[in-house]
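Progress report, Aim 2. The chain analyzed during this reporting quarter is listed below.
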Amino acid sequence: MKKITKITKITLTVLLAVTMLLTVVACGNSSGSNGGRDGGGNSDSPSTESDSTSAPQSGSTPTPQSNNRFSPVKDFEFILDESTNEVRIIKYVGSESEVHIPDKIEDNPVTLIGDSAFKGTSVISIIIPDNVITIGTSAFENTALMNMILGNTVITIENKAFQGTQLTNVTIPDSVTTLGMYAFSDTPLTNVMLGSNVAVIDGYAFSNTQLTDISIPDSATTIGEGAFSFTLLTSITIPDSVTTIGVQAFYNAPITYASIGNGVTTLPREMFGSHLGNDVLSEIILGNGITEIPDSVFYNFSALTKVTFGNSVKTIGDGAFNHTSSLTEITLPDGLETIGRSAFTLSSLKSIVIPDSVKTIEQVAFSGNYSLTDVTLGKGLTSIEPGVFSYTGLTSIEIPDNITLISHGAFTETPLTFINLGAGVTQIGAGAFYGSQFPDDIRDIISALNSAALR
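Predicted C-alpha cells for the chain:
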C-alpha cells in the first residue's frame, strides 16, 4: 500500500511538470502569433520597423516616400511668427539624408523654408509638405539633393533655391507662380513639368541644365534673361501669354525650331545666339505682336531656311538677316514699311517681292545675294538706295513709275541685260549700273540721264 502511494506521488509529480511545460510552450506560441498581427505580418516572417524604413542599397537613388512619418522636430531650427501663428524653418540640423519636413510644428503650420536652410547638409531626398508657401533663397543650393516632392501649396521658389543640386526630374505643382533667378541652374535636370499657373520664369532659372524639352504653360508671362541658356533644348514654342523675353533667353541651346507667340512685341538681343551667330536654328515663326525685327538679331544664322513673319512687322532692322547663307526664300509681310541697311546682305535669296507698303529700302539691303534673279518692286518706293541690289544675279528688272531716283551703285556688278525704266525716273547715280551687260539701245537711254551711270 505504501509502495502504491509512493508510485502515485511520483506519477502526479511528472504529470504536473509536463503540464507546466506545455503551458509555457503554448504561451510562447500565443505571444509570437500576436506579434505577427501587430506588426502586420505572420509569426514566420515578423515585420519590424527596420524593414519598413530600410535605407536604400548602395548605388541606388533613394525615392522620397509620401507618408506621414515626418522627420523629428528636433532636427530643425525654427521660429514662430506670432502675428500669423506660422512656423518658418531656419535651418536643418539633423543628420539624415532623407527628410520629410513636418507640415506643422507645435500645431502651427510650416509655411516657409528659410534662406540657406539646407545648404551644406547631406540631404539627398526631401518631401516638402502642403502648408509650405515659399522656398527661400539658396534653400538647397549646392546640396547632393537628388529627389524631391513639392507640396501643393508652394507659390514661390526663390533665387538659387535648388541651384547646383543633383536633381534630374522635377514636377512643379500648379500652385507655383514664380521661379526665381537661377532656381534650378547648374543641375543635371533632364525633365521638368511646369505647373499650369507658372507666370514668371526668372533669369537663368534653368540655365546650364540637360533639358531637351520644355512645355511652357499658357499662364507664363515672363521668360527672363538667359532662362534656358546652355540647355539641350531642340525646339521651343512660346505661348501667346508671354509678353516679355529677356536677352539671351535661349542662348547657346541647339534649338532648330522656334515659334514666338502673339504676346511678344520685341525680340531680345542674342535670343538664340551670340553676336557671332548661330548654326542650328533652321525655322522660326514670329507672332503677330512683333512690330520690329531688331538690328542683327539673326546675323550669321547659317542654318536658317524658313522665316514666317507676323502681320504687324513694320521694320526689319539693319543687318537683321545678314549672312543667312541658307535662306533661299522669304515672304515679306504686307504692312512692312522699312527694310534696313544690309538687312539681307550675303543671304541666298533667289527671289523677293517688295510689298507696296514698303517705303524705304536702305543701302546694300540685298547686296551679295548672288543667287537673286527675280525682284518685284512695290508701288510704295520712290527711290532705290545705294548698293541695294549690287552683286546679285539679276539679269532683268522692272522699275515702276513711282520710283524717281536710282542711286549710285544701286545695281553695281549685276549681269543685267534688260531694264524697263518707269516714266517717273529722273535721276540715276554714278555707277548705278556698273558691270551690266545692256545692249546699246538701253545703254543710250541710261546715258541720256547720266553718262556716268554705266561706269
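The chain is about 10% helix and 20% strand. The first strand starts at residue 76 and ends at 81. These observations will guide the mutagenesis work planned for the next reporting period.
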